Automatic annotation (TrEMBL):
Belongs to the HAPLN family. GO terms for biological process: cell adhesion; central nervous system development; glial cell differentiation; positive regulation of neuroblast proliferation; skeletal system development. One of its GO terms (cellular component) is synapse. This is Hyaluronan and proteoglycan link protein 4. Keywords: Disulfide bond, Extracellular matrix, Glycoprotein, Hyaluronic acid, Immunoglobulin domain, Repeat, Secreted, Signal.
Amino acid sequence: MVAGPCVTLVSPQRVTVVPWWHRQLWDGGRSPGHRSLCDIRVPCPSQRVTVVLWWHRHPQDGVRSLCDSRDSGAVVVQTAPGKVVTHRGGTIILPCRYHYDISAHDPAEIRLKWTKVTEPMTFVDVFVALGKARRAFGPYRGRTALQEDGVGDASLIIRNVTLQDYGRYECEVTNELEDDTGVVKLDLEGVIFPYHPRLGRYTLNFHEAERACREQDGILASHDQLHQAWLEGLDWCNAGWLQDGSVQYPISRPRERCGRKDTPVGVRNYGFRHKESEHYDAFCFTSNLNGKVYFLKTFRKLSYPEAVQACKNNGAAVAKVGQLYAAWKIQLLDRCEAGWLEDGSIRYPIVNPRARCGGREPGVRNLGFPDKKYKLFGVYCFQKAGGGELGVGGGSPKRV
């Protein structure tokens, strides 16, 4: 028998992942009756045991065990696989735990740092902690805190989640000269909507597309969001900017002049385009509403200025395009009457297609941008819940 553990390192192809949240894997935090895997005593080498705990972020390193940190003094970081999902205005926990030899290092020397990956090799500081000192950065101030659920918990709580919080986050733990990093992807429930302004199609450079989405209560969509929308049936013939600066469009029904009839379905990709000089439409993304969109009942049809005043008199504002899409997708708003929106377009949402009501497919119908002064329609208004700011929410953190 040997005094210490005998661990076999295996290649990723042979890995069986043991979830990190099993508390018996953690020294100092395991339940009574559970032994740490680092305490296992096995014969070596004739009866070797393969212990696999997690995927390490460096493929060339293969798979390491928690026992390595006890022997070497290294810090080992684990994050949940896949992604965590919430909605705008919600509260979410980004899970991250770390392991190190507590007898060799003072916990006050451990630095915890969260950053957001905005582009390859580009990072934005979110939150940092060293000992009892805490600091949040930029738009994360007042909305972030460590969960601190026992020894080794570096999980980050984000409250009042915004559209801009979507993306990849890195949890970095540093112990003097040793450090390790894990990645958490934060996803949002919501809806993609294609957009072009009154000027017409293919009139937006990248920065104008960003601004257009923001003005319509959205952000530029990511490739993953567009791909998911395509899986759910989105079919759109006009190419649009995405968050990463690429230009793409989803095709579910290839046809002539629209993805080519003899080609397979999929998301067409023009690649990364020049952000200043090239012009396309935009694919925007929006999420949950802290309020409601409704069709305002009036005695007669309204011009655009009259529609603005009518919503205002009702304690609301003319709805933005993103708000109407969110109401259609999330709140299942279904209305057969066309109405003004904030950008001067005329649209109406259809959840249950029927005769003389928007064709055969559900969606938000767009009748274009008529003359604001002389054309008369109804109006869709948006009223904030309780008079609060859009995107503000709370509640208990959502656990994964």
